[in-house]
Amino acid sequence: MEAEMTEFTINPRRGLVVWVYSLKQLKNLKRYGLVHYVSRKMKYVYMYLDEAGYEENVAKIERLHFVRSVEPSYRPDVEMNFADKIGTRAAYQMDEDGFEVEELSTHIRLAEDV
């Protein structure tokens, strides 16, 4: 028997924070993407949407009557390559001389002497 080899493809996703008035309509949000976290106290839902139809789905979610506001995740826009910063002087922002430590004279005063 030959086992069918299916190729696993990773769909690029983007996070979305949806602030809601009520969590009763949580099932309606599940049709737009994967609901990752629900905060019942602060009334927000963190969900992931596919990058392909992201803008259209965000516009649809914003029009729902129970949605207060929508905040996109900016993580895909931020450069996450820190390899050139690790272990270099730019990471520590040091001068050529290094750090200078200045000792100050300190006097210990007891509460009785004050």
From TrEMBL:
Q: Which domain of life is it from?
A: Bacteria
Q: What is its main location?
A: cytoplasm
Where it sits in the cell: the answer is: Cytoplasm
Q: Pfam families recorded for this chain? A: DUF2129
InterPro entries tied to this protein: DUF2129
Q: Which UniProt keywords apply?
A: Cytoplasm
**Which HAMAP family does the protein's record reference?**
UPF0298
What family, per the record?
Belongs to the UPF0298 family.
Q: What is this protein called?
A: UPF0298 protein BAU18_001429
What's the source species for this entry? Enterococcus diestrammenae
